[in-house]
From TrEMBL:
This is NMRK2 isoform 5. It catalyses: beta-D-ribosylnicotinate + ATP = nicotinate beta-D-ribonucleotide + ADP + H(+); beta-nicotinamide D-riboside + ATP = beta-nicotinamide D-ribonucleotide + ADP + H(+). Belongs to the uridine kinase family. NRK subfamily. SUPFAM superfamilies: P-loop containing nucleoside triphosphate hydrolases. Pathway: Cofactor biosynthesis; NAD(+) biosynthesis. Signal peptide: none annotated.
Amino acid sequence: MKLIVGIGGMTNGGKTTLTNSLLRALPNCCVIHQDDFFKPQDQIAVGEDGFKQWDVLESLDMEAMLDTVQAWLSSPQKFARAHGVSVQPEASDTHILLLEGFLLYSYKPLVDLYSRRYFLTVPYEECKWRRSTRNYTVPDPPGLFDGHVWPMYQKYRQEMEANGVESTWTA
């Protein structure tokens, strides 16, 4: 049995923390982080708001991410070995792929592949505080959270709901 579990949600909402805990606890479990598919900085557009558009689907190479998921689907054992995951014989019939990211449910070719979808949220103030304590390769310019990050989260969440993408909401 192959299971693909989406761990989606807002920036700094606990997705990676949950994913890493599940990865340690579940046998035959691999992970694909959406953050690993950002395009190079020079390919990220500047929006009308004056900020680099990191929080939009176009900033990600989603075709490459889908190709990676397809590689897992074609051979979960081979994929696991290639990513340093030892396959446990007693659980070898079940393979789990965790997809972790902030725009997982906005890319239609992936939406129907999930066995289960989760969406993590935290209150606005908590999210803003967490974001302010993180060190990013490309530091956040002043005003980015309120001027771009939060509005984009709200936009994509509304689109996800309008498109009928069902997930389990957790806060």
